[in-house]
Amino acid sequence: MILESYKRKGWPFQAHHWNSLCLIPLALLMSSCAPSHADRIVVGSKNFTESMMLGELIAQQIEAHTHLKVERRFYLAGTYICQQAILSGRIDVYPEYTGTALTAILKQKAGSDKARVYQQVKNEYESRLGLTLGPPFGFNNTFALEIRGEDARRLNLTTLSQASAYTPQWRAGFGYEFMERPDGYAGLATAYGLHFAAQPRIMDLGLLAPALRDRQIDIAAGNATDGLIPAFDLFVLEDDRHYFPPYEAVAVTRQRTLQQHPEVAELLAELGKKITDQEMQKLNYALDGQRRDVKDVAHEFLRSKGMIP
User: What's the CA angle centered on 147, arms 141 and 152, to 5 degrees?
Assistant: First the structure.
C-alpha cells in the first residue's frame, strides 16, 4: 500500500524510503506470505531498454520449454520498485546486477572481484530475503561516464582522472538512481574531485545519450552496454580509480517460485554466459537505434544460440 500510494501520487521512491522496507523480518514475512503462481510465471524488468530486453529473453526461454503461462510486467521503474515487487510476490523473476544488489539493496560495500561479489549477493539473498540468483548472463554492465567522441579526441582524454580537469566547464546529466544510490554520484564526485558548471540534470536514462549528442549536456552517466554509444560516437571514460564495483547481470528469482517450478531454475541456468558485452550492446541498439520490437529481437537471439527452435 505504501508503494502504491507513492506511485499514484507520482512521488519518487527514494533510497532512504527503502531503508524502512528492507528490514530482514519484514522481507522474510513478505516473501513467505506472498501469493503463489501455480500456473504462471510473472517476469518483471526495470524501466530501461536493457532490463526489458533481458526480461523478454527470460520470458521466451520459459515459454519455449514449459507449459507455464508467462506474464510480463516490464518497466516497473527502478531498482527499489522491482525489489519491492519481487518480495511482495507481484513478480517471480527479474534481471538485476550484482553490484547494484550489493550496494543499493544490501547496503554493503562492494569489492572488485566479480566472483566474490556474486557469491556474497547470492548468499545474502538466499539467507535473508528468500531470493536466489541465477548464473551471470555473461556481461558486465557497469556505469559508464560518457562524453562526445569529438571532445575525447580533441582534448586527448581517456580516463575520468584526466576529465576531472575539464568538468568545471561541463554540464552533467545523470539518471535519478545514479544521483541517489550509494555507488552513484556523491561517491564518484568525491573519488575523482568532480565539479560541474551547474547542478547535474536528472534525466530519464533513455534521454541521456541523445542529450549528449545534441550538446544539451557534456557528460552523462549511462551504461557500458548502451547501444547508442557507438551509434552517436560517444566515448566511455575509463574508471581508472576503480570506483565502480562489478555489475554482472543475473536473474533474481523467488525461492518459492523455484520450489513450485524447479524446471525454471534449469532454464535460467541455460542463459548463463550466453551474452557478451558486445552482444548486449547490439541487442540494445536493435531496440534503441533501429526501433525493432523486443520480442522479435529476443527470439532471433535465442535461436542464434540454439536455445529455442
Answer: 115
Q: Any idea what the CATH number is for the domain that residue 256 is in? A: 3.40.190.10
Query: Is residue 298, in this structure, part of any structural domain at all?
Result: yes
- Return the beta strands (E) in the chain as ranges: 40-44, 69-73, 93-97, 131-133, 143-148, 172-174, 201-202, 219-223, 234-236, 249-254
| Alpha carbon 171 to its chain's center | 24
If phi > 0 it is left, if psi is from -120 to 50 it is alpha, else beta; for residue 238 that is: beta
Q: Can you tell me the distance from the alpha carbon of 278 to that of 299, in angstroms, rounded to the nearest whole number?
A: 18
pLDDT digits (tens, 9 = 90+) for 25-42: 444 444 444 555 678 999
**253 and 193 assigned to the same domain:** no
This model's pTM is above 0.85 = no
Q: How many independent structural domains does the chain possess? A: 2
pLDDT in tens, 154-181: 999 999 999 999 999 999 999 998 999 8
If asked whether residues 151 and 11 sit together in one domain, one would say no
State the residue range of the domain holding 22.
Answer: 2-140+246-304
Q: Is the pLDDT of residue 6 over 50?
A: no
